[in-house]
Design goal:
- The structure is a homodimer of 475-residue chains.
- The radius of gyration of chain A is 29 Å and the shape is globular.
- Chain A has 16 helices and 14 strands.
- In chain A, helix 10 packs across helix 11 and helix 12 packs across helix 13.
- In chain A, strand 13 and strand 14 form a beta hairpin.
- The longest helix of chain A is centred in the middle third of the chain and has 22 residues.
- By secondary structure, chain A is an alpha/beta fold.
- Chain A folds into 3 domains: 177 residues, NAD(P)-binding Rossmann-like Domain (Rossmann fold, 3-Layer(aba) Sandwich); 105 residues; 142 residues, Hotdog Thioesterase (Thiol Ester Dehydrase, Chain A, Roll), CATH 3.10.129.10.
- Chain A has an 8-stranded mixed beta sheet with strand order 3-2-1-4-5-6-7-8, with helices on both faces. In chain A, strands 9, 10, 11, 12, 13 and 14 form a 6-stranded antiparallel beta sheet that branches.
- Strand 10 of chain A pairs antiparallel with strand 10 of chain B.
Chain lengths: 475, 475
C-alpha cells in the first residue's frame, strides 16, 4: 500500500458522503469531492464542522494535519489520482451503474471503489463493469465521522486492501463472508424496525416509550458487547449451547408476527456454541460479567457528563440523594462522600492524580452552593473560578473505596476564597490534602469581581464557623 | 406511599432475583429473600458482591446505608411485612400460579406483587387470583443492579404505585400500554435474535462478526438514543413522516425471511410522526445531532478507560498516532498535544480543574516513558507516583480547543523527579502551569526506591537537555 497516493475521491456529498469526506480529511488524506448539487459545499461544510468538533476529541493525541479538500467539477477530475473512491449516490441501481462506468473510465486500474449502499449486493453493483473485482460494498453508519464500523462485502483480495486503508483512517472494517441483500447490520435493524412498527401500530407503546426501553435497557449493553456475548453471560457457566437450548422453545412461541425461524438443529447449536467459544472463551463468565459491569458504569457516567438518557437519570438521583443528606452543622464541614468509580483508575492500579483534582473541585462546588452561589446565581452571570491549587498525595485509593472530604476555610475575604480540603478514607486516614485558591468572577467579562451582598454575608458565616489555620504555609 | 414499610420480599434468588435484592438493599430497603435452593445464599452473595462494587460508583454522592438482608424460610415469612413482593421463579405458569397463591395468602392486602416474567401477560399470571389487580409485570434487565429500565404491565393504579417505588430505588419504570406476550423489549430482542440465527445458520457472519457490527455500530447509538430518535435525525429537517415514507418501500423488499409487516397507511405514518414530534420536537435536528455526537464521544472515551470495544480501537489508534509523532529533539520537550473533549467541561462552560490534573499527569506519563519506564518496566514492578502538585490556572479552555504542554526538568536525582509543565494554547499563550513532584516506587511494597541503572542514565540525559530553573520557588 505504501506506493498509493493518500487521495480519496468521494462521489456524492450528502450526509454519508460528507461523513466519508470528514473521515479521510481528518486522517490526513486529501479528498476530491464530486457532487453536482450546488448546495453540496454548504452541506459538506456542515458535516465537516460537526466532525472537526467531535472526532479529534476521541483521541488523547493530536490527529495528523488535515488534508486538502477539493471540489471537483466532474467524476473524471475527482477520481483520476485517487487510490480510494467512495460512491455515495442515491440508492438506485441505474444511477449507481452509470456512476461506476464513469469512475472506471477515468480511475487508476488498482483504485479501490467502495459503495456506501445499504441494500445492494456487490454482484449487482458490478454487473455492468469489466473490472468487477474493484467494486465492493463499504457500508458505514451515521454519523460516519464517529461510528467506527464499516461492513465490507466483495472480492477477498480487494477487501484485504480496503481493510488496510480503513485501519489507516481509524475505522473498524468487518468483512461479511457472503453477499446478501442489506448485508448484516441492516438485516438486524430491519427486524427491529418491523417489530417496532407493529408495537406502535397496535398501540402497545409510543415511539418515546420504545426508545426509552432501548436506551435505558439493552442499548446500553449493546454499546459494549453484542447479542451473543451478552447471552453467553446470561447462559452462565453452563455455556452457550445450554443457553440456546433453553431459549430455543421460545422461538416457536407466538410472540411476534415475524415467524420464519431456522430449526435449532444440533448442527446449528454446535456452530453457535463453538463460534462463541472462539469469540469469548478467553474470558470466564465471571470475568465477562466484571468487564460488562465496568463498561456499563463507565458509559453511564459518561452520559452523566452530557446529562442525557441513563446519565440524566443518575444526575437526578444524585440531587435526590444529596437533599436527603442531613445538614452540616458539626465542627467539620463534610463536602464530599462517595466511592471511587472504575473509570478513575490508571495503569498504576490506583486513582489517577487528575481525579483528586476532580474530587477537590467537587468539594469546592459544595462550598460554593453552601454559601448560596447556586444554579440560579451562576445563571445570573456570577461564579467562582479556581486560580491555584496545591495538592499533597499521601495514600493511594482504589476503585470501590469509600472516602470523604472535610473542608476548612483558610481565607474568605471579598472576591477571595481559600479552602483547605482533607480527603480521608472511610476509617479516617488522610489520603490527600489540597489548598485551593478561588476567585469570584463575572461570567460575562470572565474577570474577577466582588460577590453579591448575600454571598458575602454567607461567606462571613462560613469563615467564622469553619476557619482553619494555614499549617502548610503554602500556595 | 409514606406509610409503607421499606421492606421488599424477593421470591427466587437466581441472577434476576439476586439483582432485585441488590437494587432494594443498596437503596436502603430491608429485603427478605425466599429461595428453597440451599445454594441461594452463595448465589445471591455473588450478585451482591458485583452490585456493591459497581452500583455505588454510578453516583457522585454516597448511597443510603444498606438495608438488612434476611433469608426467610418460607414465602409466608418473607412476604408478611413487605410492601413490594417480587416473583422471580422459573418461567412456568403452574409454578408462578402456586407462588402467587402462597404470596397472597400471607401478604398485606395493599402489597405490590411484581413478576419478573419475560413472557407472560398479567392476565395469565393473575388468572387464579382473587386480588388480580395486585399482580403485575415488573420486567427488569440483566444486570438488574446496573441497567435501569423496568417494563411495567398491569392495572393502572397498581402501576402508578409501583412506579413511585421504582423511582425511589433509582430505577426507570416504563409503563406498557397493553399486555402482549413478551411485552416490548423482548419482542425487539426476539426479532434481532431470529435474524441473527439466520445469519449464522447461512454462514453470512460469525457470532463475533455480528457482535462487532453491533458494538462498533448501532449499539453505540442505541445506548443514548433509541430507534425512532436516531431515525428522526437521519430524516433531517424534512421530518419523521418523510423518513418513513422513504424507508417504506424497503419494508417490502425481500431482505429478510421475516416478512409480515404492517401496512404503512397514512394513519400509521401520522401516528409515528406525531409521537416522534412529541418525543423529540423540542430539539432541532441540528441540536439532536450535536447531542448525539457529544454522547458518542463521551461514551467511546469511557470505553477507552476500560480498553474495550470501540474504546480499545481508540487506544490502539492513540498508540499509532503517537509513534508517528517526530521525536522530540528541540530545546523544549513537547509532552502533550490534543484537543479538549466534550466530557471535560463543567457548569462554568470551561475545562474543569480536575482535567488540568489529568493533562499534567499525561505529560508526566510522556516523560516517564521517554526515560525508558515503559509498559514492560511497570510490569516488572516499578513505576512513578506523584507526591505533590502545584497548579496555577491562568486562562480558560473550552471543548474543541487545541493545546500543548511543554515540560522542563526542575530536579532529577535518584528517586526524585520534579517537573515544570507549561500548558499553552495552539497560538502559544500560557493557559496553566504545574510543578509536579514524583517519586520512583516499588509497586509491590508501594514504597519509594531508586530506579534501575538505565533509567538513572536516561534521567541524567533528560536533566542535562531540558533543565529549567524553579522560577516559582514553590512546591
Amino acid at each position: 500500500m505504501s506506493n498509493q497516493t493518500k487521495i480519496a475521491a468521494i462521489i456524492g456529498g450528502g450526509v454519508i458522503g460528507g461523513g466519508w469526506v470528514a473521515r479521510f480529511l481528518l486522517a490526513g488524506w486529501d479528498v476530491n469531492l464530486f457532487d453536482p448539487d450546488p448546495e453540496a459545499p454548504r452541506k459538506v461544510g456542515e458535516v465537516l464542522d460537526h466532525a472537526r468538533r467531535s472526532l479529534p476529541a476521541l483521541y488523547d493525541v493530536k490527529l495528523p494535519d488535515e488534508g486538502q479538500l477539493t471540489f471537483a467539477s466532474s467524476i473524471k477530475e475527482a477520481v483520476s489520482d485517487a487510490s480510494w473512491i467512495q460512491e455515495s449516490v442515491p440508492e438506485r441501481l441505474d444511477i449507481k451503474h452509470w456512476t461506476f462506468a464513469e469512475i472506471q473510465a477515468h480511475c487508476a486500474q488498482d483504485a479501490l471503489i467502495g459503495s456506501s449502499t445499504s441494500g445492494f449486493k456487490p454482484s449487482e453493483l458490478s454487473s455492468e463493469s469489466e473490472n468487477k473485482s474493484a467494486i465492493f460494498v463499504a457500508h458505514p453508519f451515521n454519523p460516519v465521522y464517529l461510528v467506527p464500523v464499516v461492513e465490507l462485502v466483495g472480492d477477498a483480495d480487494t477487501l484485504d486492501r480496503a481493510s488496510d486503508i480503513l485501519d489507516q483512517i481509524l475505522m473498524k472494517p468487518i468483512k461479511v463472508k457472503k453477499e446478501i441483500d442489506a448485508h448484516v447490520a441492516d438485516r438486524l435493524l430491519e427486524a427491529v424496525w418491523r417489530e417496532a412498527l407493529w408495537l406502535v401500530n397496535d398501540d402497545i407503546a409510543t415511539t418515546e416509550e420504545i426508545d426509552d426501553i432501548i436506551r435505558y435497557g439493552f442499548g446500553l449493553r449493546w454499546a459494549q458487547m453484542g447479542l451473543f456475548e451478552t447471552y453467553r453471560i446470561a447462559g452462565g457457566e453452563a455455556g452457550m449451547a445450554h443457553f440456546i437450548e433453553q431459549f430455543g422453545p421460545c422461538l416457536k412461541w407466538p410472540w411476534t408476527k415475524l415467524m420464519d425461524v431456522p430449526d435449532l438443529t444440533d448442527e446449528l447449536v454446535d456452530k453457535i456454541a463453538s463460534q462463541s467459544d472462539k469469540q469469548s472463551g478467553k474470558h470466564s463468565i465471571r470475568a465477562l460479567e466484571q468487564i460488562r459491569d465496568n463498561n456499563l458504569v463507565a458509559m453511564m457516567r459518561a452520559l452523566k457528563t452530557q446529562n442525557w438518557g441513563a446519565g440524566a437519570l443518575l444526575n437526578y438521583a444524585d440531587k435526590q440523594l444529596k437533599s436527603a443528606i442531613p445538614s452540616n452543622a458539626g465542627e467539620q464541614l463534610e463536602t464530599v462522600r462517595r466511592v471511587v468509580p472504575v473509570d478513575w483508575t490508571d495503569y498504576n492500579g490506583h486513582m489517577n492524580e487528575g481525579r483528586y483534582g476532580q474530587v477537590f473541585s467537587d468539594a469546592a462546588d459544595f462550598i460554593i452552593e453552601f454559601i448560596g452561589a447556586d444554579e440560579d446565581y451562576i445563571k445570573s452571570g456570577l461564579s467562582y473560578f479556581t486560580a491555584e491549587t496545591n495538592t499533597n498525595f499521601l495514600q493511594e485509593c482504589h476503585a470501590g473505596d469509600e472516602f470523604y472530604v472535610q473542608t476548612g476555610v483558610l481565607l474568605a475575604e471579598g472576591k477571595k476564597l481559600k479552602l483547605l480540603h482533607e480527603m480521608k478514607s472511610a476509617d479516617g486516614e488522610t489520603l490527600a490534602t489540597c489548598t485551593q485558591f478561588l476567585l469570584h468572577v463575572d461570567l460575562n467579562t470572565r474577570k474577577s469581581c466582588p460577590p453579591e451582598a448575600h454571598i458575602l454575608k454567607n461567606l462571613e458565616a462560613l469563615r467564622s464557623n469553619y476557619a482553619v489555620a494555614d499549617e502548610q504555609g503554602e500556595a
